[in-house]
Design a protein that fits this description.
Blueprint (H helix, E strand, L loop, with lengths): L7 E6 L5 H16 L3 E4 L5 H11 L4 E5 L13 E4 L6 H7 L3 E5 L3 H13 L3 E4 L4 E3 L2 E3 L3 E2 L3 H12 L2
Parallel strand pairs: 1-2, 1-5, 2-3, 3-4, 5-6, 6-9
Antiparallel strand pairs: 7-8
Helix pairs in contact: 1-2, 1-5, 3-4
Length: 161
């Protein structure tokens, strides 16, 4: 696939995932690579590392947007580390650089990225992640996926819209 046509999909999630979330993230990375998509993430451990590990195992391209100034602090599966020196503000860069976002598990940092994605109108697919309620009713902005394959399929399809 020509580079210009590659989809850039963000994978977001916590730095201390459950074993289930780490496995889901790794499978998401594998599926993204199989579909020729570029994986962008926060570049550190946890869900980010698991997703990058999966993508690299399938020959995929991984980009890590790091909070600090040292690119050597990226997880070992990040092919292109981008050191920002902007701390958690890098969460906006991760999301804004993508055409769709897949959230796997996550803590409050992930919730900020979810907010950026929703505010930007980006497709947001969720695997074992946050549920949002507004006025005591569930907000359906996060599209639930039952599997990593479904999450990736939805992200790639919706990235075109």
């Amino acid at each position: 696939m020509p580079e210009a046509e590659k989809k850039i999909i963000a994978v977001i999630g916590g730095s201390a995932p459950t074993s289930k979330e780490a496995k889901l993230a790794e499978q998401v990375g594998q599926e993204l690579a199989k579909h020729g998509a570029v994986l962008i993430c926060g570049g550190l451990g946890g869900v980010m590392e698991a997703a990058c590990r999966g993508a690299r195992a399938e020959g995929g391209l991984t980009i890590g947007i790091l909070p600090g100034e040292n690119p050597k602090l990226a997880n070992p599966y990040v092919e292109i580390p981008i050191a920002t020196g902007i701390g958690y503000a890098r969460n906006a860069v991760v999301v804004k650089s993508a055409q769709a976002v897949i959230a796997v598990g996550g803590s409050y940092g992930t919730l900020t990225e979810i907010g950026y994605a929703l505010q930007s109108g980006l497709p947001l697919i969720g695997l074992n992640t946050w549920t949002i309620f507004r006025n005591a009713k569930q907000d359906k902005s996060i599209i639930p996926a039952e599997s990593p394959a479904e999450a990736v399929r939805l992200a790639i399809e919706l990235a075109d819209d």
